[in-house]
Amino acid sequence: MSAASSSSLPARGALEVPSLGADETGAAAGEAFRRYTSPSLRRNGGAGVAIVWFRNDLRVLDNEALLRAWAASEAVLPVYCVDPRIFGGSTHYFGFPKTGASRAQFLIECLGDLKHNLMKQGLDLLVRHGKPEDTLPSIAKAVNAHTVYAHKETCSEEVLVERLVRKRLEQVVIPHPQGGASNQKKPRNPKLQLIWGATLYHIDDLPFSVDNLPDVYTQFRKAVESKSAVRNCNKLPLVLGPPPNSGLDEIGGWGTVPTLESLGLSVTKSEKGMHFVGGESAALGRVHEYFWKKDQLKVYKETRNGMMGPDYSTKFSPWLASGSLSPRYICEEVKRYEKQRVANDSTYWVLFELIWRDYFRFISSKYGNSIFHLGGPRNVVSQWSQDQALFESWRDGRTGYPLIDANMKELLATGFMSNRGRQIVCSFLVRDMGIDWRMGAEWFETCLLDYDPASNYGNWTYGAGVGNDPREDRYFSIPKQAKTYDPDGEYVAYWLLELRSLAKERRNFPGASYIKQVVPLKFDGGHQKRDQQFNRQRRPGNMYRRQK
Ligand SMILES: Cc1cc2nc3c(=O)[nH]c(=O)nc-3n(C[C@H](O)[C@H](O)[C@H](O)COP(=O)(O)OP(=O)(O)OC[C@H]3O[C@@H](n4cnc5c(N)ncnc54)[C@H](O)[C@@H]3O)c2cc1C
Ligand SMILES: Nc1ncnc2c1ncn2[C@@H]1O[C@H](COP(=O)(O)OP(=O)(O)OP(=O)(O)O)[C@@H](O)[C@H]1O
């Protein structure tokens, strides 16, 4: 399938995703909220104050932590901690910025929109700069919160923070709220209540324990599709307010959503490509735009391997990663579309891809830190280089291969790259350059708007041939990929101006008209045969050995 036509991106100026504008976006979000509001929902005897600690779940719709807090209390306090480890820290091995400026900007927009949507529900968002384990206990003490509700994460950095928050909350003492049974009225500690909510399929509904998760994706998918059901989205009451009426002044009021400058970051808005608008409203707007307005869902499977413009794929990933969009909401919209318009392979395929996302999330739980280690979950031993000059030529889009360079420039300029592009640049870095795959993964961690540890490291370990599934060990031939997915060189000429004047068939093969190639390709002709030969050579026991 070739890439979408260049007419889908203007030659100058970035295209907003969604491209609806504020009014239409607001209307689409409002309509979604109306559909999911149930006026008959009532608090069920809740007492006292509950805190919602927002993490990667920056939404109001289908946010179970928020709803559980509402049901269990008389007043809800939503809190977000601007964690210096996330906004100021570095990646683990190679010290790149933990969160690049583009993603920070996207998250700031998510927070602004979350605050807005919470206010519409009679609440607000308390924003604090600091580590959750330092800030949440003092907030809990000030408002006498009996519980902190939050979504459960799976990777060790986030799990460590959960552990620290729990421990520090145990050191806080609060009085018991009025009205409980008399034997429960002694002072107590706020509890941390963690809720599973990032995946399409709930972890409790899997037909196996996470430790017994199949290592082959297809087995996982078939099992959940046949034996599990996706839960319904949680309905919202008419209002979620009020917030607590005392204690907030003591801790300095609601605080403000940070700006890029306040985080010591700056970003130059790209003149090209896509500009993603952060926030739950934009996310709901994008679902409306892609499914209903542009009616793209029915052709998704045919277009999804494209590289140009907003509509070859859903572009839901940045909102899914920040939690501004619930995968269950997407699923319900797919079902609604299938009823009202058409059901075909394409409508199903979006769910197929969302199951990949689930799969990597569960894999991160099963395999723990090994998804971040050089040998990956299978502990594969191999020779890797950390050649800085080669890595930088990849990072900056100066390899001499237009398809690689265009993709890397898109990533740098916009924080996004297509799935096709990601597979190609990953294969090039690890197979043709022989560079330590973690350098690539960490650079993606810095740049991607949709960075998600499980999906990023899961896909990189697959691409590097060290993933949990030994059969996933593929070499992507650059000439073959260029001919198939960018036959007229539209994509490379969009990102590399110097190629525009060349004949279409030469843009991906410019020879001396373009910069010198930094490495030869492992295989550059007779692609099919060579690809297979390469894969055979890399099987364990030859280039790869398994560690005993
Ligand atoms: C090396 C590499 C690194 C990646 N890093 C990330 C990452 O950090 N975060 C991330 O969300 N995705 C990552 N992906 C997966 C995939 O490239 C993106 O999810 C996808 O390109 C996002 O665009 P989209 O929303 O238009 O996807 P669509 O094609 O519209 O797919 C719909 C949704 O399905 C999910 N999905 C699709 N493909 C995958 C996949 N291979 N793995 C997991 N989920 C998938 C995503 O949530 C996506 O939004 C990576 C892929 C590779 C090869
Ligand atoms: N959310 C995350 N994003 C990126 N990396 C993560 C995340 N969670 C955990 N990691 C990585 O998991 C690894 C955990 O490191 P840690 O030192 O705790 O354990 P380890 O297994 O001994 O690893 P190492 O020996 O490589 O340091 C690190 O590579 C860390 O960066």
Give me the secondary-structure topology.
Blueprint: E1 15-17, H1 21-35, E2 49-54, H2 64-71, E3 75-82, H3 84-87, H4 101-120, E4 126-129, H5 132-143, E5 145-151, H6 156-169, E6 191-195, H7 217-227, E7 274-276, H8 280-293, H9 300-303, H10 317-322, H11 327-340, H12 345-367, E8 380-381, H13 388-395, H14 402-414, H15 419-432, H16 437-447, H17 453-463, H18 478-485, H19 490-495, H20 527-537, E9 545-546
Parallel strand pairs: 1-7, 2-3, 2-5, 3-4, 5-6
Antiparallel strand pairs: 8-9
Bound molecules: flavin-adenine dinucleotide and adenosine-5'-triphosphate (ATP).
Adenosine-5'-triphosphate (ATP) is lined by residues 92, 155-158, 369, 372-373, 445, 453.
Family: Belongs to the DNA photolyase class-1 family.
Binding site for FAD: 300, 313-317, 353-360, 450-452
Region (Disordered): 526-548
Can you put this structure into words, describing what you see?
- The protein is α/β, with parallel strands linked by helices and 548 residues long.
- The chain has 3 domains: 3-17 and 261-367, Serine Threonine Protein Phosphatase 5, Tetratricopeptide repeat (Alpha Horseshoe), CATH 1.25.40; 33-251, HUPs (Rossmann fold); 388-513, DNA Cyclobutane Dipyrimidine Photolyase, subunit A, domain 3.
- 41% of the residues lie in helices and 7% in strands.
- The strands form 3 sheets. The chain has a 5-stranded parallel beta sheet with strand order 4-3-2-5-6, sandwiched between helices.
- Helix 6 links the parallel strand 5 and strand 6.
- Helix 5 runs parallel beside helix 6 (156-169), helix 12 (345-367) packs across helix 17 (453-463) and helix 14 (402-414) crosses helix 15.
- The protein is globular, with a radius of gyration of 24 Å.
- The protein starts with 14 loop residues before the first strand and ends with a strand.
- Flavin-adenine dinucleotide (FAD) binds at residues 304, 313-317, 320-321, 350, 353-354, 356-357, 360, 418-419, 422-423, 426, 444, 448, 450-452, 455-456, 459-460, 463.
